[in-house]
Amino acid sequence: MSSLPLLSIITPSYNQAAYLETTIRSVLEQNYPHLEYIIVDGGSTDGSVEIIQKYASRLAWWVSEKDQGQTDALNKGFARAQGHIIGWLNSDDTYQPGALAAAAAYLQANPSVGLVYGEANFIDQAGRIIGRFPAAQTDYARLRRGYVHIPQQAAFFRAEHLRQVLPLDPSFYFAMDYDLWVRLAQISRPQYLPGQMWANFRLHASGKTISADDRCWPEMLKVHYRDGGSFFAPLVAKYYLRKLAAPLLHWQRQRKMQKHNP
Question: Which of 256, 78, 56 is nearest to 161 (CA)?
């Protein structure tokens, strides 16, 4: 363990006091020997600052100030990070025990891999497991076709590669993770590790995955066209098919939420 590299975790947050402390504890209780934890709060008014202050002595850096949104917060955190390996954990998600050590050890042993990711559970607002993220192996070509399948909560990447692709587009509200995966996959190999349960992805009524999913695919198209993509590409076809299916998909998510949170 002592030979493992410095690992930086960035948590962007805004008015997530209901879940923030659980997120913070899931990072700090990893007992990873070389951890740098950074929290970038967007000026929360719900008690989040008091929660952050409670753990301030164990944080490398934190701030609470008005920003341009989650991507802006991530850019701030990434710019501060000193670790050789970077992870990004939103303030309503959590890590599974041992995730950081397993990811760092894998990247240390496999220098050709720039991004490694494992499995993630879907959990409800109470932390109960309600499903499994559909993680699968992807690469640059597949990403450009809309085959994402990377659970952001369970993904870790090399800082040297991250520095080559920053900053992320601060206008992105939803698909900043897709944008990052595409940028990283252009210069390094992503690797999926089946069976490695590293994180929990929380689904709740105020979360963006439930409340603003319709903003994801237009932003993915923005990445597609920015990088020279054609109108006749598979990603564009998937966008229009998903747009047609959006009411059904939204209904299914709401039904799942209601089933597990009566």
Answer: 78
**CA gap 217, 238 in Å, rounded:** 9
Q: List the beta bridge partners of residue 10.
A: 38, 88
Q: What does the pLDDT look like over 88-97, one tens digit per residue?
A: 999 999 999 9
Q: How many CB atoms lie within 10 A of CB 25?
A: 13
Residue with tokens 């000193």: 82
What SS3 string covers 60-106? CEEEECCCCCHHHHHHHHHHHCCCCEEEECCCCCEECCCHHHHHHHH
- Domain with residue 107: its CATH number is 3.90.550.10
Quick one: tokens of 139? Answer: 């690469």
Q: Which domain holds residue 148?
A: 7-206
d(CA 159, CA 161): 5
Q: Does pLDDT of 131 surpass 80?
A: yes
What is the number of structural domains in the chain?
Answer: 1
